């Protein structure tokens, strides 16, 4: 077991940096990447970045000039939580979610600026196209033909527990500063994940407090740290986070803005693997050990190995859902599952 020294969180190795000359080179780097990397100054020329470098007030004014007059969903933390949006002692959330207009939200952020007891105010994963006019067009990275979800994240000083996402992620620090602490996919056992259904934002999160890790309660976290890397981003910098890599995210200034792009290598009609895992927890996890072993072998045969021998003995045209997946076949499977689950 690695030496359990809390100070090691401040001395983790940095995420490697790359330099790209243009969109074509960025595309080539992304296509070849299987590990995180940082691009310094990727979005330096964004008007939002330039506004933020003048002041937080200038950045807020820039966003207000382009926002649509509609309610925004905002999370408000309890004072004294140090910006950590997490669980309380009863495993409920330590923040409230509400709706408000953006001018009202920004007024509250300005009111609490510089106060150590300020509550966290956080707008998470706001769709840039639906909530702003022209913001994406003036502030975006050219990512070619990828089918993207472009989101903006706005808030005060915040700490978001380590979690992972199904898609790939290119995250751009637009205003303020961001710190990402990243771990490879296989480290989930060493991050002490919380509930998969009762979550702060839809994904299971690490129960470890990165600012005060308890190595007696979470001893394997020391092993996770052996694999960790840190990306400290200033305005205009970007980090690429491959699909399913774990990342702890901190906004470290009084006002921070992040723009990120999610995309999957697989088509959307394939659905979400997490849904299959949740269903397996209901149907397989509590079976007798010998039956669980059988279903493990069945999953290996039909899902994980899935070589030609699985269907070679079945005539073509009669293989049903064992045929290669298509949008039509995925739709038929989804309809079948909905009927089965509604009984």
From TrEMBL:
Coiled coil: none annotated. Residues 98-278 form the JmjC domain. SUPFAM superfamilies: Clavaminate synthase-like. InterPro entries: Cupin_8, JmjC_dom, RmlC-like_jellyroll. This is Cupin-like domain-containing protein. It comes from Sphingomonas yabuuchiae.
């Amino acid at each position: 077991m690695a030496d359990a020294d809390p100070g090691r969180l401040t001395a983790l190795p940095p995420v490697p940096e790359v330099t790209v000359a243009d969109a074509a080179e960025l595309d080539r780097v992304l296509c070849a990447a299987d590990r995180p990397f940082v691009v310094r100054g990727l979005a330096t020329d964004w008007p939002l970045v330039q506004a933020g470098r003048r002041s937080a007030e200038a950045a807020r004014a820039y966003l207000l000039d382009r926002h649509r007059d509609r309610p925004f969903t905002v999370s408000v933390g309890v004072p004294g939580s140090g910006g950590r949006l997490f669980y309380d002692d009863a495993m409920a959330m330590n923040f409230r979610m509400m709706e408000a207009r953006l001018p009202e939200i920004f007024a509250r952020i300005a009111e609490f600026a510089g106060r150590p007891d300020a509550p966290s105010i956080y707008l998470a994963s706001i769709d840039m196209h639906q909530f702003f006019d022209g913001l994406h067009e003036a502030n975006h990275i050219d990512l070619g033909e990828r089918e993207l979800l472009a989101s903006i994240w706005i808030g005060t000083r915040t700490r978001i527990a380590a979690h992972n996402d199904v898609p790939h992620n290119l995250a751009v620090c637009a205003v303020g500063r961001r710190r990402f602490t990243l771990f490879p996919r296989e480290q989930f056992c060493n991050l002490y994940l919380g509930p998969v259904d009762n979550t702060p934002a839809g994904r299971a999160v690490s129960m470890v407090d990165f600012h005060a890790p308890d190595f007696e309660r979470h001893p394997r976290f020391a092993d996770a740290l052996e694999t960790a890397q840190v990306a400290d981003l200033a305005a205009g910098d970007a980090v690429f986070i491959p699909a399913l890599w774990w990342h702890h995210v901190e906004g470290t200034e009084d006002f921070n803005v992040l723009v990120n792009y999610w995309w999957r290598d697989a088509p959307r009609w394939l659905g979400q693997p997490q849904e299959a895992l949740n269903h397996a927890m209901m149907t397989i996890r509590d079976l007798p050990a010998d039956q669980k072993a059988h279903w493990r072998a069945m999953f290996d045969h039909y899902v994980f190995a899935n070589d030609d021998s699985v269907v070679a003995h079945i005539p073509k045209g009669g293989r049903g859902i064992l045929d290669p997946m298509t949008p039509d076949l995925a739709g038929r499977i989804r309809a079948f599952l909905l009927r089965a689950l509604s009984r």
